[in-house]
Design a protein that fits this description.
The protein contains 8 helices and 4 strands. α1 packs antiparallel against α2. The protein is elongated.
Length: 178
């Protein structure tokens, strides 16, 4: 996985720089998400791996599928990826672009998995606390996992906060066994 990130990072940075200069972060975000989704289709994956097609033919076929969602610059980006045999990196490029966009906009997507649904006031308090902790605007996405017994798991970027009963019991057992 690290290799994919390493290969995709320069393309994501280039796309981000261009989008930022053109004041079109949201447009590029949507275009890359669409292209990434198209590239993950089984038939498109077969097309991209077809050794009989030239890079230009791959780009043309790919663009014929999603050209309505791409600007001229987006089409040129797809052609560049095809020329360098990197169309398969589109999902990773899109994910890295979203990270760069979130950093630039000082936002953070936070996933909360709790044993029971969060009330509106709990969600609001958690959003405020996390916004203060990370010094960013937080977009909270919550889900329920009844197997947690109680508490919640919070995932914010690379940070994971395990405040579940199961997690606390595991820490206690580990401390007692040390």
């Amino acid at each position: 996985m690290a290799e994919l990130s390493t290969l995709a990072r320069p393309y994501a940075k280039a796309a981000f720089s261009y989008a930022q200069a053109a004041s079109d972060l949201n447009g590029w975000s949507a275009a890359l998400a669409t292209a990434a989704a198209v590239s993950q289709s089984e038939k498109v994956r077969e097309l991209l791996e077809n050794p009989q097609l030239t890079s230009e033919e791959r780009a043309d076929k790919f663009l014929s599928i999603c050209s309505d969602e791409l600007s001229e610059a987006g089409g040129n980006f797809i052609r560049l990826l095809a020329e360098n045999h990197r169309l398969s990196l589109l999902p990773e490029i899109s994910a890295l672009f979203e990270e760069l966009k979130a950093q630039a906009e000082a936002t953070l997507d936070v996933e909360v998995i709790s044993a029971r649904p969060l009330s509106e006031s709990q969600a609001q308090k958690l959003t405020q606390a996390l916004s203060k902790k990370f010094a960013r605007e937080v977009h909270l996405h919550s889900s329920v996992d009844e197997s947690l017994l109680g508490g919640a798991i919070i995932r914010a970027g690379d940070t994971v906060i395990d405040g579940t009963v199961r997690g606390r019991l595991a820490k206690l057992a580990e401390a007692m066994n040390s």
